[in-house]
Amino acid sequence: MTTPEDLENAVDIVDLVQRYIKLKKAGTNYKAVCPFPGHNEKTPSFMVSPAKQLAYCFGCHKWGGALKFIMDVENCEFRESMEILGGITGLKIWNVNPEKVKQAKNLYHIYKDAKTYYKSALQKYPEVKKYLIDRGISDEIIDKFDFGYADSWVELYNYLKKSGFDDKMINDSAIFVNVWAKKDKFINRIIFPIQNARWDYVAFTWRIIWKWEPKYLNSPATSIYDKSAILYWLFKARNSITKKDFVIVTEWQMDTISLHQHWFTNAVAISWTALTDKHIKTLKRLTHKIYLCFDGDKAWEKATKLSIENLKNKDLEIKIIVMPENWDPDDYIKSGWDFQELIEKAVSPIWFLIEKADFNINSIDDKKKFLTEILQTLKSYNSIVEKDFYLKEIAKKLDLREDTVYEAFNRTRLKREDNFVENNVKKVEYNSEDYAIWYIINDESVLVELREKIIFRDFISLDLANFLAEWWTIIEKMELQKKERFKALAMKIEENSLSQTNDVVWNTIEKLVKKINLDSYKKAIKILKEKMNSWDMDAFAEYTKVVKSAREMGLK
Ligand SMILES: [Zn+2]
Predict the structure, then answer these.
(1) Mean pLDDT, the chain, as a whole number?
(2) How far is the CA of 78 from the centre of ligand 1 (A)?
(3) Same structural domain for residues 374 and 329?
(4) What range does the domain containing 70 cover?
(5) Which of 96, 350, 452, 525 is the most exposed place for a label (fewest CB within 10 A)?
(6) Percent of the chain with pLDDT over 70
(7) What is the CA(36)–ligand 1 centre distance, in A?
(8) How far is the CA of 491 from the centre of ligand 1 (A)?
């Protein structure tokens, strides 16, 4: 198994940090403005030491080696930072299939090369470039966003072959209809490359110029392109999102490109889907304010509603930027309208849901259903003034008396929330076995360690024993109340471990193992002695075994 140290040894911290921000040489060190979310500064207090292989911010006091840097900059858990560094260094880590890693690397490479080909092809077609310029896209943006043009059936194929890719790899990329036809799917179309959150090229969107249908198309899903997870331009928008502390999500690339061209640099795009849980998880690490900015048409009203549903109860501040009917953000900005004003006028989800409610006013059932749903949403609002305002709006919308709506709301409120009991349990105490379970949940590679080193399996808690045996099925089956208990514990540990380096984390695990072994040893001795006193013959053999192992482990 690759250890955290192996991973850190395989990368130079200066190269790693440079993937995220530009560094300036300062003596033997490098400096830059702090890249970590939540720290907004103008003069650089972030330093990288190549000699010590450390990154340190004098402003927010976050520091550590490569893995800790990734945890801080991506705002992710230790396990994920190992995966990320595994991807960068090509070292295989727990649970990662080396074949898959290799295949992904090949695909990134193909997409990058294809991007280069398309980009240079665009230069050969002034009429295509003019088409873009006429649409208000500047030369600088064409270059920055890697706009390209697919001009030929076989040139790209030959280009990729020359770069050393075989037919199988080219076929896997799904750029071609099939590799034997050598037919580029995107021919005669403008190309926008899509990158993942670490700036690997993973897919293309293309747009027709001459009048064929469909107008826009996306690459199909491949092993490196999952629409429900990718946020376009996230890698470049990351800093701006954390500094401005909100993100604008648009429905496709062109809207985001337009926003960036007009200095709204905290925009990212999804690809014609609703915002999924994966998107939300990624964004939540950077900011808690999400502004949805979709087209002003019916299809997008639906997508917005679905996104609002997915965003519910995620402890986020959501705003909807309402586009005038049949406008998209790209048109809007290019027509010279003030987008900043739209941002300032952004509405709350509940306003949007009331305004765009879609029900039959003559159907009592429809009305009842809408009322129940909307009141459930309203329940989570804290401000009395807001509640009052929306209750009146709901009454108007449903053509009901205000009293009726208020009464319905009060009834909704009185219903006990399912999680209420769990959320208000008395202060709980955790023991070392609980902590061990938490570490397993948080980072699978710990499991390997613990499986090897925890010895008296029959004398540890049933929960931990189960986890060591088959943790993934256990988590699925775990009762809600227990899950809540571990969630609370996770929060507690995270609070304390913010300033911890990986060494400290692994040291903690080592100490935990020692403590668990010692505790379970004492427990074993006590239980076995009782059994021996009542002449349980098996206990004698067991006792000898336990004492022997304890001596070997240096526990006695
Ligand atoms: Zn900082």
Answers:
(1) 82
(2) 19
(3) no
(4) 4-89
(5) 452
(6) 85
(7) 6
(8) 22
